Amino acid sequence: MSDRQIEVSVVLPAYNEEDTIEHTVRTTRDALGAFLPAGSYEVVVAEDGCDDRTPEIADELAAEFDDVRHFHSDERLGRGGALDAAFEAAHGDVLVYFDTDMATDMRHLEHLVESVRSGEYDVATGSRWMSENVADRPAKRGVPSRGFNFAARLFLGSDLRDHQCGFKAFSCEAFEALESAVEDQHWFWDTEMLVRAQRRGFRVHEFPVDWEPKGDSKVDLVRDVFGMGSQVLRCWWEFSVAPYANRRTGALAGIALTLVALGFMLFYLDPSSVLAAMADADPTTVALAAVIYGLSWPLRGVRYRDILAELGYWEDVWFLTGAVFVSQTGNLVFPMRGGDFIRAYVVKARRHVPYTSGFASLAVERVFDLLTITFLAGTVLLGLALFAPEQVTALLGAVTGEGALAADGQQSAETALAVAGLVGALAITAVVVIVASARMDGGYARRAVEWASDDGYVELVASVLESFVSDVQTVAADGSAFARVGATSVLVWTIDVVTAICVVVAFGIDLPLSTLLATGFFAVSVGNLAKVLPLSPGGIGLYEGAFTLLVVALTPITAPVALAVAIVDHAVKNAVTVVGGVVSMLTLNVSLTEAVEGASTETVETETKTGD
């Protein structure tokens, strides 16, 4: 049979289909023969690294029929990768594929093929979600499918109702034009092909099909969340943000981020309350507090440099200090320290630190922060128990509602202390786990992912997690580095406490030095533990609640004055952060949009560590 006679190539992606592949091939041949001349079509079994009898059966079918071919891969290519490779080797002008379970009624095959073969459309796809014929799908399939398709329409601007139906046809010209642009090699391949086809102006035909689910299925954590979700976001960034992301727009976006942070701060910290509180404070001493707090930022840059150095990346302290400023400004906007993601983008785009190492370094830094303030709070509490047990009794009374706070303030403070206790316990647990894991053989991250999923995305996700865990273990396994970073963390948080003590002094409060130091270390440490899980951007609210309750319990200071101190202390620190964020964005020209745009041009897995 001459290749030039072939008009239609039907590719059947097959992975471990020994029970169904023969029936599927024979049924496909019969369906094609019903409306196409003999010799004008071929059936290609795209066998994707199977470990059952599928390859042998495919060989037997290829030997039996001249119009059947077996395309073999020694290793898994992924669903999209297998289709790409088979289509490239196909001979037809119309390239068709459908799932080997034949869930779509084969009576639609002629319509699918002729839609493209006639030249009326460039791409055709069956749909289970068009109003004319909505498929009756179990909830565990239907709900995730509808959610995914809604996300594709919302974020990617698609006009289609069903992107994942395994029943599609492409003209050879459309496939060749789209193939090089499609990055996904797994389950998102279908969606990306269709979305890019629409954006390129190809004529796409979606038509309803009768579809009956075959076999069992489950929502796969790795594929559906890590895989498909991340691919939607990748394409959204490429289509909707990257074309407008440059240094100018990046700087504007960074300034806008800072203004939003300032707006949130002013929203949660009522300016009139701050001004009223500051009216009773010495402005010179408050300004001194801001200067003292500013001294902690270069130390943050030094600490981050030491963490990255353990991972093989030697970077400039001032650049890293600026990156920390930018990310901390983002944390004033995004809850749950979402601004930390900005720093990973910045060091990836500007210093080529892979995302896995960037996030690992952030995780290590965050654990050191939590461990340090937990240690400081625990040390003070132990000291009080040994040398001032009456203050511990007063503290317990305040926590149980016997203090001087109003009812609503008492409830907020108790919530803050509960959060602080939980976070402190988690910090200690995290350190124990990290140090213990540093002495263990690797592989548990991969085993956990493989336990959760058997999808093609497992290898990708497992390799990313392994790299992340390995980087965290690298820092934990080096005793000197662990001690050095720990010592810097103590200095950083000591300056944070001294800043708060300076604010207390600004209010003219006269306390014995021992009481002032103990209260400052305890209130600031617990307040910062409380705001790790913020109910508002920047942790505003929980910090003030915990700080106020502890100051009232441990000193003669009244609740209104303690709250005023907490408000001014937090406002000073946030103001320094915002100013530092603005200066860093302008002088270093780093921002979320510029960093992500730069990072998107490089592949994480292929980068070489600086200094290797």
Automatic annotation (TrEMBL):
GO cellular component terms, semicolon-separated: plasma membrane
One Pfam family recorded for the sequence: Glycos_transf_2
Protein name: Flippase-like domain-containing protein
Matching SUPFAM superfamilies: Nucleotide-diphospho-sugar transferases
UniProtKB keywords: Cell membrane, Glycosyltransferase, Membrane, Transferase, Transmembrane, Transmembrane helix
A GO molecular-function descriptor: glycosyltransferase activity
InterPro entries named in the record: DPG_synthase (IPR035518), Glyco_trans_2-like (IPR001173), L-PG_synthase/AglD (IPR022791), Nucleotide-diphossugar_trans (IPR029044)
Membrane topology: Multi-pass membrane protein
Transmembrane segment boundaries: 250-269, 275-295, 367-388, 416-438, 490-509, 545-568
UniProt source species: Halarchaeum salinum
Places the protein is found: Cell membrane
CDD domains the record matches: DPG_synthase (cd04188)
Positions of the Glycosyltransferase 2-like domain: 9-177
Transmembrane helix in keyword set: yes
Biological process according to GO: protein N-linked glycosylation
Domain of life: Archaea
Entry similarity comment: Belongs to the glycosyltransferase 2 family.
